[in-house]
Amino acid sequence: MADFCYNRTMRIIILAGGPASGFDRQIKALPNFSDSYFVGVDRGAFRLMTAGFPVDLAIGDFDSLTADELGLVKDYAGKWYQAPAEKDDTDLELAVLTATEQVSEIREIIIFGGLGGRFDHEIQIFYLPLQARFASLAQKIVLMNETNHISFRGEGTHVLTKIPEMTYLAFASLTAVSGFFISDAKYPLSKTDFPKNFSLSSNEFLDNKPVTIGLEKGIVAVIQSRD
Predict the structure, then answer these.
(1) Which of 21, 28, 60, 200 can bridge 42 by disulfide, Cβ–Cβ 3.0-4.6 Å?
(2) Which residues, other chains included, contact 184 with Cβ-Cβ below 8 Å and sequence gap of 6+?
(3) Residue ranges of the Thiamin pyrophosphokinase thiamin-binding domain (predicted)?
(4) Inter-axis angle of helices 91-102 and 119-126, to 10 degrees?
(5) pLDDT for residue 7 is more than 70
(6) Tens digits of per-residue pLDDT, 15-31?
(7) Is the Cα torsion angle 37, 43, 46, 50 positive or negative in sign?
(8) Is 75 strand, coil or helix?
(9) Which residues contact 153 (CB under 8 A, 6 or more apart)?
(10) Which CATH number fits domain 10-146: 3.30.950.10, 3.40.50.300, 3.40.50.10240, 3.90.226.10?
């Protein structure tokens, strides 16, 4: 499907079919949001269209759309691909695989509509960075809704900045983690090994100043959230 590829650094915005209240406001709050590659997954394509955003790619089995709605999406989308209902990949996995073929330099991949719905879908999306085929994209994937901003960090030292509307800072490992530390947060942590998955919740930024974390091995989710 990669007959054309954008040869510049771009953000990929994916709207999946799950709950996505306020996605339009969140997209418009992104810097230079219009310079993004917009992907609608299943009903997400229809929601992008009706909200007035481009749909560069519509993809999925579209089982949640009526025939009339699907016809509108086909006419509106730059590209569309209807996948069979029974397949090895989820609609979202297909969306990530296909979208990354269209953009040569990816700044980030922001996924809306992936949190707060069916838990089996939610946990599958949360663990996307563990799939070998997405490993190079892991630290570019962001999951967002109105109350959560989730990104992923691997080996090295990382400086975190506060998302203005979020209150809390938490961490959850996707793998065993070695040498994990937190500094300049309300609750710092000296280098610690976690041989099993862990979660550290309800931390906070101090006076909106950056927080530094690091790990020697593993993958950690960085979760900024609010009530």
Answers:
(1) 60
(2) 206, 209, 210, 211, 212
(3) 156-221
(4) 40
(5) no
(6) 998 999 999 999 999 99
(7) negative
(8) helix
(9) 139, 213, 215, 219, 220, 222
(10) 3.40.50.10240
Residue in this structure with the two tokens 């989710």, named with its chain if needed = 221
Candidates 139, 113, 104, 89; CA nearest to 39 is: 113
What are the residues whose beta carbons fall under 8 Å from the beta carbon of 28, sequence distance 6 or more? none
Cα 107 to Cα 13, 175, 196, 217, 221: the distances in Å are 11, 24, 31, 23, 18
Burial of 117 (0-12, 13-18, 19+ CB in 10 A): middle
Distance CA 76, CA 49 (A): 7
Q: Give mean pLDDT, residues 162-172.
A: 96
Q: How far apart are the first and last CA of the chain?
A: 41
Residue 165, CA distances (Å) to 57, 90, 104, 133, 162 in order: 30, 31, 32, 33, 8
CB 11 within 8 A of CB 35: yes
- 3: confidence class by pLDDT, cuts 50, 70, 90: low
**Pair of tokens at residue 95:** 């969306």
3-state helix, strand, coil in the chain (%, to 5): 25, 40, 35
Average pLDDT of every residue of the chain: 93
Rounded to the nearest angstrom, the gap between the alpha carbon of residue 208 and the centroid of all alpha carbons in its chain is: 23
Question: Is residue 36 exposed (0-12), middle (13-18) or buried (19+ Cβ within 10 Å)?
Answer: buried
